[in-house]
Structure formats: C-alpha cells, structure tokens
Amino acid sequence: MADSVIINSVDRALDVILYMYKKGREVSVTEISKDLGVYKSTIFRTLATLQNKRFVMQDQNTGKYSLGVEFYIIGASLNNQSGLIHLVKPYAQKLNHEFNEAVNVSVLEKESGGSYQSVIVYKEASYHGLNANTEIGSDNDCYCAAIGKCLLAFTPDIDLSVYKEHKMQKYTDKTITTISGLKKELAKVREDGYAMDDEEREKGLLCIGAPILMNGEALAAISISGPESRMRSDLEHKIEFVKSIGEKISLEISADPETW
Fold first, then answer.
1. Topology of the domain covering 80-259
2. For the whole prediction, is pTM greater than 0.85?
C-alpha cells in the first residue's frame, strides 16, 4: 500500500496498541517512547487519545498504561465462544431461565482521574422486557449497584478516597453517599459473599450480585435485576442461587487457572 494513503497518527496509535499487547503488562510513556523511537510528548498524546476511547487505561498509582476494557468488550462481541464469556454463558443462561429476570456480567473499570465503573461484557435479557442501561459496553457507578459493590469488595487496592473529589450522586433515598457508609457496605459484601442494590440506583429496581473470583480476587461479577415487587418474592432463594452461580463459575476458573 502506498505511503501516501497512510494516516501517520493512526499508524502510530496501532503501533502503540500492538506494542502494549506484546508486552502483556503495564508500561510507561518513557518505555514506549524508547522502544518505538518516538518522542515522549507524541506517545503521551497518543495514549491520551486512546484512553479517551477506553482503549488504554492508566494506573493512577504507578502512572503506567495497559490495554483498556474496550478491547475486552469488542472481543466478547466478536467471539462469544472464548475465554470468560464462553465459560460464563451457560451459567448466566441458567440464572436467567430460573427467574426470568435480566442477567448481567460485568468487569471493573476505573475512569481516568475518576471513580469506579462496572462495564457490562455479557447479558441475558429479562423475559419481562427489563433492559434499562444493559447494553454490552454500558457502564454504571459501582457504589450504588450490586454488581459494582461485588467488584469493589473483592478487588485489591481499591482507593475509595476518589469519592472525596468525585462525590457519590444520590440517585434515590437509599443511595449510599459517604465513604464510611460504602466501606461498611463493602465489608458486609465480603462477609456475606453477595451484594444487593435495593432501589439504590433506581426506584423500584432490585438487583442481586455475586463475585466471580480467581485466587480470591474479582475477575468479574454476575447479577440478576428486576422490579422490586417481583424480586422480593422468594428473595432468599434468589440470593442463594446467585451466590451458588458465582461460586460455581469461580471453581471452574480455579480448576484451569492458566486459561486466565
């Protein structure tokens, strides 16, 4: 292909992505610049552009970069027969069929300089048509969602001080809006092995979530959601069923850890 039709900035961005993929770990601007022979200022702008679209993410503690959740979402959409999606799918379908409610599987993402979000990577629609904000790739605040609380509770090095600057929005009268309140809630989630969103994000909506663990840390989380009036019926059975699904997925992951 003729060089005249190549867009240099796009070509450079793809070089950076391929470099990060091959490294398979967090890398610094200096390291990328040195290995690719490109000015640090240029690499920084390239990373900032990719980060804006969630193709890379930055660790706020180390300042280093890794590939972002958008690649996971695209990969999941293109190939539902591999990795986590392939493993989770039959369990999510079983949960969906058992209660006829919406099922979501999400992973954790921390916005650049912002708060924690849960990003949906797989879903099973409710038989009753409840699908609000459940598209693949959509994200939600973790502090007020069952699935998000599971991700926060079972992920190491979570920095809740981010909520000093990024205040927790009060969506309903039940929304947790203080760091102390969230810490107490996450401790309960760790003790109970599940989380609930009892009309905290949306009035009339109740969700139950459970972590999907690898070596005791959250790889993802799974939840069912439905109208509070319907979900409240036989609630304990629903809680135990969701917990058991999360535990079974975690056990299967643990049985073949090299896959992850």
1. Beta-Lactamase (3.30.450)
2. no
